[in-house]
Amino acid sequence: MTLDDFLSETNETQSAFAQRIGVPQGTVGRYVRGERIPRPLIMGRIIHATCGRVSASDFYPSPAVEHHSSASPSMSQTDRRGRPCLTEVRPHPAEKHPEIIP
């Protein structure tokens, strides 16, 4: 999920989200528009603040390979509204992952 999608879905403003992760609102705006990719420290804050719904890979273009996962999420934390958060994804043991060759 993109950061823009997350903010829209949760009705959170860029300004409020920026305050939660400790960056200026303009920086969040640049993340949303794809003009900047967060540094690792800030990326960790974004992942934590969104309960893993926005991940590092969401800031990069998707590969051309289409892959449907039957991964099972582990729900052990809750977000600020008390809903379960995705904290870990474990692939199903029978699933084979395709190799992506550049």
UniProtKB/TrEMBL annotation:
| Basic and acidic residues bias spans | 89-102
Q: What is this protein called?
A: Helix-turn-helix domain-containing protein
CDD domains (UniProt xref)? HTH_XRE
PROSITE patterns documented for this protein: HTH_CROC1
- Which stretches does the entry tag as region Disordered? 58-102
Pfam short name (any one): HTH_3
Q: Name one GO molecular function term.
A: DNA binding
Query: Per its UniProt record, what InterPro entries does this chain match?
Result: Cro/C1-type_HTH, Lambda_DNA-bd_dom_sf
**Ranges of residues in domain HTH cro/C1-type:** 13-59
